[in-house]
Every structure is written in structure tokens, then in C-alpha cells.
Specification:
mainly beta, Pnp Oxidase, Chain A, six-stranded antiparallel β-barrel, globular
């Protein structure tokens, strides 16, 4: 079952040259127990390993994120919602491993 959710996602992917990692942002379209479909302004290579963090309830008193590891299984340029300089891509990635993480609290050094 897929859940239609539009949530912020932060993605770490390997560049096309394969020599460095890039951090990018996007929005989820839907999420299931086996993967995620999201929109971003980059096109990763098929089969690329990625790490992505979905912000589940960032506005809540106790925010929690879902940190996932997977690989890219589909990447398509969207026909709408982009300018010549900023293309948007719809990316499908597997969900191989995940963990729930809470953002680190600021530490007050005066105590």
C-alpha cells in the first residue's frame, strides 16, 4: 500500500562522476514499506545508492525523521514545473534499511 504524502526529503547521492557525494532537497510524492517516490531537481543514475531523510513531523514538540538507505530504480524528467535552468525529476528509490532519528537538541553550555 502506498501513502500519498508530500513531505520534505533530504537526499545524499553520488554524483554522475561517482567521485563525490551531493546533498539535495526534494518532496515526497508517496511512500510505501518498500520505497519512496519523490521529486527533486537532480537526476541520479539508475542503481545509485542513496541515503534519504524524510521529515515526518518537524513542527511537533518532538520532531522525528525517517533516515533511509536504498537505491535509485527510476528517474524521469517531469514535463511540467521546471524552468530551463532548473529541471525537476521524479525519482523512485527502494527502502532497504531505515531508522527513526530525532534531531539533536541544542546543548546549553552554561550548565
Amino acid at each position: 500500500m502506498r501513502f500519498q504524502l508530500s513531505l520534505p526529503v533530504a537526499v545524499t547521492a553520488v554524483t554522475r562522476a561517482g567521485s563525490e557525494y551531493v546533498d539535495l532537497a526534494g518532496l515526497t510524492n508517496n511512500i510505501s514499506s518498500s520505497g519512496v517516490l519523490f521529486t527533486a531537481n537532480f537526476q541520479p543514475d539508475l542503481g545509485t545508492a542513496i541515503e534519504y531523510t524524510i521529515k515526518l513531523n518537524n513542527a511537533a514538540p518532538q520532531p522525528v525523521n525517517l533516515r533511509c538507505i536504498g537505491k535509485v530504480i527510476r528517474s524521469e524528467r517531469m514535463q511540467y514545473g521546471y524552468t530551463e535552468d532548473h529541471a525537476l525529476y521524479q525519482i523512485a528509490a527502494t527502502l532497504v534499511r531505515y531508522e527513526f532519528v530525532r534531531p539533536k537538541k541544542d546543548i546549553d553550555s552554561s550548565h
